[in-house]
Amino acid sequence: EVQLVESGGGLVQSGGSLRLSCAASGFSFSAYSMDWVRQAPGRGLEWVSHIGVSGTPTYYADSVKGRFTISRDNAKSSLSLQMNSLRAEDTALYYCVRDWTANNSPTFDLWGQGTLVTVSS
Amino acid sequence: QSVLTQPPSASGTPGQRVTISCSGTSSNIGSNTVNWFQQLPGTAPTLLIYSDNQRPSGVPDRFSGSKSGTSASLAISGLQSEDEADYYCATWDDTLNGWVFGGGTKLTVL
Fold it and tell me: Which residue in chain B has the smallest CA separation from A35?
């Protein structure tokens, strides 16, 4: 089955760190760029970070730049997000997303179920 | 405040046609293709429309997308109760060097 399964979420104090993981299965992980997208409780979707097929390029939303680091291990079909200096406004459900490009048009064609990060102040 | 502007809500009765707008700028919608995502209550988003107007396999042809200049639209015809969901537009922004989303539109089927 083609799927993305996130893990690593939890409750952390403001200023703390957390590492999210995403396990991919059922498709050739190394052939796809990947992203993290988050959704605060009761709010809309917010893109967080992108990583290319070989680990570059990487891009970050201004709201997390300098605090979050995206990485991947193609041998293990896994994606990670290291989150440092966490703030209350980082509280959200974090989705692992497959980035697919069709005819030069990128899109997010596969989403995980998300892992919840709660930052207490 | 989202980079792409969507109406917060929309509604229609079963069988009706509704449209949801998404407004951007020359650095995002004006330069890149638009995607639409559907998020049913309590679930993860799913891809509804990509490349402005393309439907992934499995998406009913009641859903259609269009784009003109720096604006895009999602149309849903023959509205059904199961269409009640949140809808988001998204595209790449060349100035921000990142993806941008609309704030989402909550569709209610009356």
Answer: B99
Phi first, then psi: what are they for A83, rounded to 5°?
-115, 115
Binary contact (B90, A111; C-beta < 8 A): no
List Cβ neighbours of A81 (8 Å cut-off, separation of 6 or more): A19, A20, A36, A48, A49, A68, A69, A70, A94
CB contact under 8 A, A108 and B90: yes
Q: Three-class SS string for A40-71?
A: CCCCCEEEEEEECCCCCCEEECCCCCCCEEEE
Q: Do A44 and B99 touch (CB under 8 A)?
A: no
pLDDT tens digits for A51-64? 999 999 999 999 99
Which chain B positions have a beta carbon within 8 Å of A47's beta carbon?
90, 98-101
The per-residue pLDDT for range A81-107, each reduced to its tens digit, is 999 999 999 999 999 999 999 888 999
